[in-house]
């Protein structure tokens, strides 16, 4: 049976591949934005997977714990903090890109990337 960490790594890789496909090959701008979100969430899941420790404890040092035991058994907290920051930044950039997509739709009447780029070259 596949373990949790390997399953999460495969899932994060799948998210990144799906996002790359959407961002490169799909023509609709909203679908491209969703693809970029998939890439971001795949990277976040990858970072969380790196911090996973089987039978690990929460990285809070409590009285009575020896420093050596704590270091050997606690999960690595830095990726968790990085992912929390990434989620906030990702939500802000998603809002900005969707606002830009709205402006592009109002200006060009379409969300097709090929039509919008074709209008700019005329």
Describe the structure.
Helix content is 75%, strand content 0%. The longest helix has 31 residues, at 78-108. It has helices at residues 4-25, 29-51, 67-73, 78-108, 113-120. The radius of gyration is 20 Å and the shape is elongated. It has a single domain, classed as Helix Hairpins, CATH 1.10.287. With 122 residues, the protein is mainly α.
Summarize the structure.
The protein has helices at 4-25, 29-51, 67-73, 78-108, 113-120. It is mainly α and 122 residues long.
Q: What are the key terms here?
A:
5 helices; Helix Hairpins; 122 residues; mainly alpha
Q: Average pLDDT across residues?
A: 91
Name the helix and strand elements from N-terminus to C-terminus, one letter apiece.
HHHHH
Low-confidence stretches: none
Identify the CATH class. Answer: Mainly Alpha
Shape: elongated
Query: How much helicity do the residues have?
Result: over 70%
Distance between the termini: 57 Å
Number of domains: 1
SSE layout:
Blueprint: H1 4-25, H2 29-51, H3 67-73, H4 78-108, H5 113-120
Helix pairs in contact: 1-2, 2-4
């Amino acid at each position: 049976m596949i373990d949790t960490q390997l399953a999460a790594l495969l899932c994060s890789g799948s998210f990144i591949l799906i996002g790359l496909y959407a961002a490169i090959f799909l023509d609709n701008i909203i679908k491209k934005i969703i693809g970029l979100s998939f890439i971001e969430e795949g990277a976040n899941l990858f970072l969380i997977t790196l911090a996973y420790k089987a039978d690990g404890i929460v990285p809070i040092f409590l009285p009575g714990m020896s420093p050596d035991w704590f270091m050997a058994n606690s999960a690595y907290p830095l990726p968790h903090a990085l992912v929390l920051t990434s989620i906030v930044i990702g939500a802000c950039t998603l809002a900005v890109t969707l606002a830009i997509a709205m402006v592009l739709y109002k200006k060009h009447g379409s969300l097709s990337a090929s039509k919008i780029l074709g209008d700019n070259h005329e």
